[in-house]
Amino acid sequence: MKLTVENISKTYPNGVEALKNVSLEITNGIFGLLGPNGAGKSTLMRTIAALQEADDGSIMLGDIDVAKDKQALREMLGYLPQEFGVYPKVSAIDLLDHMAIMKGIADAQIRKEQVESLLYQVNLWESKEQKLGTFSGGMKQRFGIAQALLGDPKLIIVDEPTAGLDPMQRNRFHNLLSEIGENVIVILSTHIVDDVSDLCNDMAIILNGELKLSGKPLELIKKIEGKVWQGLIEKDVAETLEDDERLISKRLYMGKVKVRLLSDGEPMKGFKLNEPEIEDLYFATINDFRI
Ligand code: ADP
To answer: Closest residue (by CA) to atom 23 of ligand 1?
Structure first.
């Protein structure tokens, strides 16, 4: 299955150009769409999910034209929005069954099998009779995944999925996503670099509505190989780097500052050449380095 996004543009009535001529080709596996808040990720996700329309361009899932045949798209789509509204007084199994009916799974036996197997898969079997209002953030997220998987979707969209999760919940969520990712298209929209580094076989970076780069993470980071330097320096020295155009990132580390710079040669005494990471690529891209 292939998702082809071609020259999509969207300007909101208030004049914000949320998407500018975005083109992408996405195949099976987990695709990471990375960008800071306000970059246009949700706008793109909602457009792909046929929840809103673009001004220009086209989106094809296989031979389905998303804008023209929303119903066909919906039958193949699993969508996990940023905030998944749940009904606090309903049990997990009852709501999932209800949602399965809404998705058109009419046969009661097939529905039962699918609902039960999904509850197992997301590790909510023991809590299936519990009311959703009693669920933790991580449990709600797993419920969200289960409902997104109903009806055997070929395209799964998850919008900022790990924002409210602690590191352990995030890890579990990643494992779950990687299990389902092989035979379907999963699009993961996030501003968290680690989500992409951990999971994605393909990625793109979006900024101010523009697609800055796309490709395979391992190939993309080759662009900055031999250029990422790291040093541990005093805070006052780090401050002088504030406006340095080579600065990728800096963070406190054992009372000093760990600084990463993008430079063709040794940028400062004591700096060592480092393996490039997705985070370096991300900072370099959003800070408009020419790479
Ligand atoms: P992201 O998901 O990357 O945070 P969004 O797609 O939500 O980005 O937003 C992209 C830009 O479009 C932002 O500047 C945002 O303020 C604006 N925007 C989003 N939705 C609307 C809307 N319904 N009306 C007007 N502007 C919007």
So the answer is: 12
The answer on 73 and 107 residing in a single domain is yes
H/E element, 29:
strand 29-34
Instruction: Determine whether the shortest distance from the Cβ of 111 to ligand 1 is under 6 A.
Output: no
CA of 191 to the centre of ligand 1 (A): 14
- Give residue-wise pLDDT tens across range 118-146: 999 888 999 999 999 999 888 888 898 89
Q: Are residues 209 and 232 in the same domain?
A: no
C-alpha to C-alpha distance for 58 and 43, rounded to whole angstroms? 14
**291 pLDDT higher than 70:** no
User: Considering the domain boundaries, does residue 280 fall inside one?
Assistant: no
Closest Cα to residue 28, out of 153, 160, 147, 154? 154
Q: How many CB atoms lie within 10 A of CB 106?
A: 9
In a domain, 67, yes or no: yes
Question: For residue 191, which atom of ligand 1 is closest to its CA?
Answer: 3
pTM for this structure? 0.88
Q: Give residue 16 CA to ligand 1 midpoint distance, Å.
A: 8
Domain range holding 237? 226-274
Give the total number of structural domains in the chain: 2
Ligand 1 and 64: CB distance under 6 A: no
- Tell whether 121 and 208 lie within a shared domain: yes
Atom of ligand 1 nearest to the CA of 209: 10
